[in-house]
Known about the structure:
With 232 residues, the protein is an alpha/beta fold.
Amino acid sequence: GVDAALILCFLQDRSTEEAAATLELALPHKDKILGVGQDNGTGPFGPGSTSRFKEVYMKAKANGIRLVAHAGEEEGSSCVTMCLDTLQVERIDHGVRSLEDPEVVKRLAKEGVPLTCCPLSNHRMQIYPRFFCGEVPIRPLLEAGVKVTINSDDPAYFCLGSVDSQCYACDDGTYDGFISSNYLWTARMCGLTPDDCVIIARNSIEACFCDDGKKAKFKEALRAYCDGWRAG
């Protein structure tokens, strides 16, 4: 019952020529690709260098491919602004360091730009202690009206504690890194209410790159689940 599609990623620590070549190889199969984005740290190119991918992003856009980008994780809020203005992305991967600049947060909320936040990933990479004094930033982003979503990133790398394949999240501190664990850990760390979790789940439906018909079915399934949960 899993429905999936692909976002092709360029590597930030590799050359733009390699990114352009990758896109050329992918274009004959663009009907199988939802979007393009980029991964990894900037490596030898240094902070702020993501803008060098503008040309390849614009070519992808001209071919009807949607645009996302990693920003506001290892790099700060200025990277979020650059990805919105220069790369013209419609969704930001991670994005939690947008909180460093209130104007960036206001812009994200006003323009309805979704953030695909990955709480356990950020925790394991120590994004929170380095930049937020240990506070999980999901709640302040949510309260600011930003379209926050919760995601898994790479579950095999970002689990917490010993992983039991039969247990998605346990009271003993075990979190396997998958989506349910990210919801549970975040709810426990920053006091998300059931209503908050529903808002975040609905945000994820609105932010996903599927057609309106599928989105309507997902929203109806969410509503039905909530009705059943209240009745129970």
